[in-house]
Design goal:
about 525 residues, alpha/beta, Rossmann fold, Cytidine Deaminase, domain 2, six-stranded mixed sheet, 19 helices, elongated
């Protein structure tokens, strides 16, 4: 009756046998349910099945098994209140001091192709969250463990403290447990409020619940008087910046992370070796080449002034030649899938540069979101990459194969430039970028000025515009600067006037039917 008790009921049984053996070695009786009890029994760990403990068998296909006063009173009784202890003693209910529970795999179930509403409902855990919340509420007397990754530290602490678990550890585990059930219920809410009674789903749920875990506190936000932190999706997105591993350099800042994400998302869209240089959220140089060193040199050439103190990203591993070229430039952050050992040694001389490795994998955020006063704007990501088959030639002059390749390249860059965006390109590199102006013609003028300042000729270049030209003046500016082909969405009421301007200048123009506003 006075023997210590732990309740173990797990969906993810990783490490369960080892944990149970260690607990048994402390003289703790193990209570367990169905599959977990069977696993422990097969591993020769003494275990009492929950139905035998409560005197009430599992019923309703396992829907009811732990929902019993002998379980919950043993968890919830406050040991510091005599009336609580007298009540459970009178009912012959022992205390349970450790609860190890994780929940039915709801998120994994609904992620499977063809998952039905019925399957989703059957994977909504009831008894598990109830035990987790009960134990977490009574953290001053009960330890609750929901993550197998916490087993080793728990056992280490117990071994060093004669089987005891500190108040600090119990509180930390309780906070984690409530976060676990909050994320679990949030996933259920997201699914059900986006699903009708027939199982048809919509893109956006009626209520959206987003769960993130803090990776780190930041020194400050966009400005020193603002506080900031960096959070990551509970289920990390493959290939996303949040999976970074920092090899060297100062702590990342809020602006570093925002700009690094822009650089990384842009560079990942290119199939061949590519380099992207970002300054204040805009690409100031992008190039593709046979190797990373040449891609970097060409990207840097676009706008050396703006590249100073920029964020530089590659979609290929960094070798020594590239590292030595980079070492000549002041940069804030360098990102690549991998940094070769000799390249890392060369970069180590620039101690303040933040060097990040991020695996290249296919994956994307489910939503893009932007906080506004009292609300949240939510959209699907802009994952549209135009192909040759999507291009509609509307001028008398047709683009050459070389121009077509450059138009597609320019279009991919323009997607990552703040609107209004105008991007001059040639031979797989940017030549001038005009970003974020209130009028498109001003962006065109700025892009051509940028090229002139960098000593780059725009003769024979191509131009991408992220949205349609509202008037012919933008076409006049880029043609005068030397552009010979233009890619743009089309859709203006003055499209005929704009196309006529292109014909007048002898410029090829293709329409995509897709715009890429980026605010």
């Amino acid at each position: 009756m006075n023997k210590r008790k732990a309740l173990i009921s797990l969906s993810d049984k990783t490490g369960a046998v080892e944990l149970a053996r260690d607990l048994h070695a402390f003289g703790i009786d193990i209570l367990s349910t169905g599959g977990t009890a069977r696993l422990l029994r097969e591993a020769n760990v003494p275990v009492v099945e929950i139905g035998d403990y409560t005197g009430f068998p599992e019923i309703l296909d396992g829907r009811v098994k732990t929902l019993h006063p002998k379980v919950h009173a043993g968890i919830l009784a406050r040991r510091d209140l005599p009336e609580h202890m007298q009540a459970i003693a009178h009912a012959d209910i022992p205390v349970i001091e450790l609860v190890v529970v994780n929940l039915y795999p709801f998120a994994q179930t609904i992620a499977k192709p063809g998952c039905t509403l019925e399957e989703a409902i059957e994977n909504i855990d009831i008894g598990g969250p109830t035990m987790v919340r009960a134990a977490a509420k009574n953290w001053q007397h009960v330890a609750i463990v929901t993550d197998p990754a916490d087993y080793p530290a728990l056992i280490t602490e117990m071994k060093s403290a004669n089987g005891a678990i500190s108040l600090e550890t119990r509180f930390r585990l309780a906070r984690k447990a409530f976060s676990h059930t909050a994320a679990y219920d949030g996933a259920i809410s997201n699914y059900l409020t986006a699903t009708d009674i027939n199982g048809a789903t919509s893109t956006f749920p009626e209520q959206i619940n987003m769960s993130f875990a803090k990776l780190q506190d930041l020194r400050y936000g966009e400005n020193p008087h603002q506080q900031a932190a960096f959070y990551r999706d509970l289920r990390p997105v493959p290939g996303a910046l949040s999976n970074y591993r920092q090899l060297q350099g100062k702590e990342l800042s809020y602006n570093n992370i925002a700009d690094a994400d822009a650089a990384w998302e842009c560079v990942k869209t290119f199939a061949g070796p590519a380099c992207v240089i970002i300054k204040h959220a805009n690409p100031c140089g992008v190039a593709v080449a046979a190797g990373t060193a040449e891609a970097y040199r060409r990207a840097f050439k676009t706008d050396p002034t703006s590249a100073f103190g920029g964020i530089i990203a590659f979609n290929r591993d960094i070798d020594l030649e590239t590292a030595e070229a980079l070492s000549q430039q002041f940069m804030e952050v360098l990102i690549a899938p991998r940094i070769a050992a000799d390249a890392a040694a060369a970069l180590a001389k620039k101690t303040n540069v933040r060097v990040l490795e991020v695996p290249i994998e296919d994956g994307a955020n489910l939503y893009d979101s932007k906080r506004v006063g009292g609300g949240l704007l939510v959209q699907t990501p802009d994952a549209m990459n135009v192909q040759i088959s999507d291009m509609r030639i509307v001028t008398k002059k047709q683009p050459s194969p070389r121009q077509t390749a450059d138009l597609l390249f320019a279009w991919r860059v323009a997607k990552f430039v703040k609107s209004n965006a105008i991007v001059f390109c040639g031979n797989g590199m940017t030549l001038g970028v005009g970003a974020g102006q209130m009028s498109r013609v001003d962006s065109a003028r700025i892009a051509s000025i940028k090229a002139e300042n960098a000593g780059l000729s725009l003769k024979g270049s191509v131009v991408a515009s992220d949205a349609f030209f509202p008037f012919r003046d933008g076409v006049d500016v880029v043609a005068k600067a030397g552009a010979t082909a233009i890619i743009q969405p089309g859709g203006s009421v003055r499209d005929e006037e704009v196309i006529a301007a292109a014909d007048e200048h002898g410029v090829a123009m293709v329409l995509t039917g897709v715009r890429h506003f980026r605010h």
